[in-house]
Amino acid sequence: MGLGIAMFKNTDRLAYYLMILPGLVLLFAFTFVPLFYSVIAFQRFNPALGVTGSPWVGLDNILFMFTLRDARQVFFNTVFIASMKIVFMLLTAVLFALLLNEVRILTIRRSIQTMVYLPHFLSWVILAGILRTILARDGMVNNLLGLFGIGPIYFLGQPDLFPWVIIFSDVWKEFGFEAIVFLAALTAIDPTLYEVAELDGANRFQKMWYISIPGIAPVIVLVGSLSIGNILNAGFDQIFNLYSPIVYSTGDIIDTYVYRIGLIQGQYSLGTAVGLFKTVVALILIGVSYWIAGRYANYRIF
Amino acid sequence: MFARSRVDRIIDWIITILLLMVGVSTLLPLINTLAISLSDRAAVSGGMVGLWPVGFNLNAYAYILQDEKFWRAFGVSVWRVAVGGALNFALAVLTAFPLSRTARAFPGRDFFMWLFVFGMILNVGIVPWYLTIAGYGLIDNLWALVLHGAVPIWNVIILMNFFRNIPRELEEAARIDGAGPWQLLWSIYLPTSLPALATITLFSIVGHWNSFFDGLILMNNPNNYPLQTYIQQLVIADRPALHGGQARLLAELSNATLNAAKLFVAMIPILLIYPFLQRYFVRGIMLGAVKE
């Protein structure tokens, strides 16, 4: 700290404030100003009158939201799809990482990674276009099923199937990428543990069960607890590009619902109320998930 | 001992082959799309195309080459990647550097940090967000696409953590030579952070290239659609018109072969930078996500 005086000069501070200013202005303009606009959840908002001129209605919109059967169904769909995604993603990614860790030949290992990471980088618009093609009545999947005398199945048009198409196509897109943290955790396990186990006569599956899985358990806990904050995010981009009115009963989620009632039907106040409800619940969940992650996995983002 | 290792090797091969099959089948849908784009229209509508083109031809691609709307949308996307990427880069660097200082060197640092993190977590919902941008008069203005996400807070956190791990000795040496914050940032921190900078730049490029929703709701004129929004309207919106007549206007060109070709062309930029993506995204995950 011999440099103390030099390090805390006022001109330095001025420079720091100047640097952070543009970011603060944009953060204010595009994140906090919308927060002020959220007050229209407590108004009967009329675009012609604006936020200052529209009549206040107290909690009417919020209370009305709870009486909507649609809204309750949508809330259930969201939580169901999101939590199934979390469970199946975690299982698939961990299993994939454990198996890939057994592949000894490095070039093969890299090739497999190159193949499974690719869908992560493609947008849901592109992937939905592809899925609509292969899942169509005359598409690749139904042609294949036809060889076994099954189908054709309307994957995207059947309410009982639709959520599972969403869940598994999301797993398809992301499992490889999700596995990265588990692979890293596996390489961090002390190799002497495996050597000792081999001397004791442990086989491959015993090593996996007693060394690998406990070794990556903290990371599994971490990823699992952080995903609690996402339990109201069932994947807008994905569902928006794959759903249709036929499957609203099981496939409509909070974000798509808010988009339709808020922006398409122009019920600005109701759309904002539903969105605000989601925001508040999500903030609480994120708080809880970070607390759990910090408590049980020693995690801090900064 | 020998017998067991032989069984072991067989299991090794079973696992390897299984995973190779998983890898290849991950790509099958993409290969099917490519095959359709190269096939004869009649064969496609007959459901005859699997993983290999039937009636190979390049008609769809020839058609795209002279499709003015497609290239205009492509141009909008290139513009937003370039301008939006540059904005993201500049703002990430300028925001991350002061935040990487101690609260003593930069009073208010902790407060600003919480403000940005709160801004990242907070998601106010689409309606107030739309009203805000409409209030600025940015509807149908391309700048809306790059301004609303101009501060990439997750990238700021990655970069800030990276800055904090740069050895103090480098900075102290420069301080003795009389360097102020701007020189420190420019001649010490930026040159030593190239891997992190590459990572966040790639995050921005992919993010801008892939986003479609802002283009859909912030642009009313289809001429302002970025490529993903254009494709979304063309390929996806075959349900009752989302935006009135525009969807139908775009949809008149639609057919399976052509759509597949458009999907594939929209993938090409990502495929071209994929080798970099794989390397730096993996690193970005490690920089950002798991920290003990």
Brief characterization of the structure:
Chain A is mainly α and 302 residues long. Helices cover 72% and strands 0% of the residues of chain A.
SSE string of chain B, helix = H, strand = E?
HHHHHHHHHHHHHHH
Strand content of chain A: under 5%
**Helical residue percent band of chain B:** over 70%
Strand content of chain B: under 5%
What is the count of β-strands of chain B? Answer: 0
Structural class of chain B, by secondary structure, is mainly alpha
Given the C-alpha coordinates, what overall shape of chain A results?
A: globular
By DSSP, the count of extended strands of chain A is 0
Largest interface: A-B, 103 and 108 residues
Query: How would you describe the shape of chain B?
Result: globular
The structural class of chain A is mainly alpha
Structure description:
The complex is a heterodimer of chains A (302) and B (292). With 302 residues, chain A is mainly α. Chain A has 15 helices and no strands. Chain A has helices spanning 4-7, 10-37, 50-53, 60-67, 69-100, 106-117, 124-134, 140-147, 162-187, 191-199, 204-227, 236-242, 248-251, 254-264, 268-297. In chain A, helix 5 runs parallel beside helix 9 and helix 11 crosses helix 15 (268-297). Chain A is globular, with a radius of gyration of 25 Å. Mean pLDDT of chain A is 90; it is low at 1-5. With 292 residues, chain B is mostly helical. Chain B has helices at 2-37, 41-45, 59-65, 68-99, 109-121, 126-135, 143-147, 153-164, 168-176, 181-192, 194-210, 213-218, 227-236, 245-251, 256-288. Residues 239-254 of chain B have low confidence and may be disordered. At the A-B interface, helix 2, helix 5, helix 6, helix 7 and helix 8 of A face helix 1, helix 4, helix 5, helix 6 and helix 8 of B.
Outline the fold blueprint.
The complex is a heterodimer of chains A (302) and B (292).
Chain A: H1 4-7, H2 10-37, H3 50-53, H4 60-67, H5 69-100, H6 106-117, H7 124-134, H8 140-147, H9 162-187, H10 191-199, H11 204-227, H12 236-242, H13 248-251, H14 254-264, H15 268-297
Chain B: H1 2-37, H2 41-45, H3 59-65, H4 68-99, H5 109-121, H6 126-135, H7 143-147, H8 153-164, H9 168-176, H10 181-192, H11 194-210, H12 213-218, H13 227-236, H14 245-251, H15 256-288
